Model the fold of this input.
Amino acid sequence: MSAVVQSISSAAPEAERELTDGFNLIIDALKLNGLDTIYGVPGIPITDFGRMAQAAGIRVLSFRHEQNAGYAASIAGFLTKKPGICLTVSAPGFLNGLTALAHATTNCFPMILISGSSEREIVDLQQGDYEEMDQLAVAKPLCKAAFRVLHAQDIGIGLARAIRAAVSGRPGGVYLDLPAKLFGQVMDAEAGAKSLVEVIDAAPAQLPAPEAIRRALDVLKGAKRPLIILGKGAAYAQADDEICQLVETSGIPFLPMSMAKGLLPDLHPQCAGAARSTVLKDSDVVMLIGARLNWLLSHGKGKSWGEEPKKFIQIDIEPKEMDSNVEIVAPVVGDIGSCVSALLAGMGGSWAKPPAEWTGAVAKKRDENVAKMAPRLMNNNVPMDYHGALGVLRTIIKERPDAILVNEGANTLDLARGIIDMYQPRKRLDVGTWGVMGIGMGYAIAAAVETGKPVLAVEGDSAFGFSGMEVETICRYNLPVCVVIFNNNGIYRGTDVNTAGDDPATTVFVENARYDRMMEAFGGVGVNAVSPDELKRAVNAAMDSRKPTLINAVIDPTAGSESGRIGNLNPQSALKKK
Done:
């Protein structure tokens, strides 16, 4: 009897080597395609998968909420041009990650949301499975593509399709549905290895038509007051040298959208960021590079664009983006790197610079605005106002241009965007196209993980509340993240009053809250700063130490304006209360 047991035992390892399963095939498929980081929350049915992925050398970062893990995956995609991976449990966990997936799609960030799910035969008959939901159907309207894998032999092709969909053409979010039974499906190991797919040329170059390049250059030649607008698509493209060469060869003033800041330094002589109103209103030809004429640019029309007629040149990989709000007289469709290179080749070595009257007027307005703002940024008021606090952070980023700035809030976002200059590409990460709050801690974690650079996350106190528990995640992984919370005791301001009862007003938070003590609770460094000088010392110490740090920056509760700079989007009743 013992001899039989011994024989079976010695044969068992050989049998295991000949078999594989869904768990291992997913891991092998991810590694084959260079996807070596997963952001997620463990639980049924993906708990063991996370453990096994970690043991296989994939970095698996566990968050406190799936939405924040999803935001981390989305910005990882922006920074790396590879799809960021978010892993969630079924139903509620999947739904938590769905906001981030839709955010990735809206912002054109490549991301794959992988969720475990209930079994098809039970879901389709609505028989009441654990966390039952037709997740594929729910996800489809909110992402670029959605796939479900039912058989282990299809895992390789399923992930390959998800990768290609996420990064090709205009990037976006992709959903991959993995029912629980799939993980445990067993198949022959050799056949399993052959079923895996290494994606080749997932985002092939898309060359612009020569006629489109000629047309765009002809329009640009006829401009008297040209302007270039750089969007985050230009930053994503990582065609930094070509874009810089195009701007400098043309001599045209450029306006960077917030996440395109740093493609060329904000102190570049052609940068018109501090003269935004002037160049939008007075320009006659506008070239958009990876920027969309959406609400962030007033849809290309209206008061902010002035009364003079405009001609638009647009460079975008998505043909349907053209003419979305106004006529595009020179559409250039293709990937940004190829389009910019083609434009440079067409410009040659003797391109005529814009009239000095135009560039001089832009420079004069920019310098006037910078000079007007300078004294406000140097105050040492107690409690701090936004300008004094941001003036300090502006200096710190200038001294540390390699650091990554994450920024969200209302006034905290709007004012920081204009005050803090950036010097390198993809160093400013913010709320993007949707203007959604809650991206802060997820972005900060992924930025630190993907780049290894120190991260400065500048948060409004309201915005921080959406993801604040992730400071524990920052401490757990000992990430070089310094969080600065602009604490003015409320949303927009901390002075609103409820005149109808005892409850606090809807926009007011606990007075004089000490967010810094949250970080201390998890072993990080907490600092309470009440003046710009204290803020400067605390941030510099955090950036030098690279220790997880949270600074509670006490801001005057009366500082700030309703809805920041987009108050026009917030309807107000004109009726008087009776």
User: Anything to note?
Assistant: The mean pLDDT is 94. The CA atoms of residues 299 and 325 lie 6 Å apart. The two ends are 93 Å apart (CA to CA).
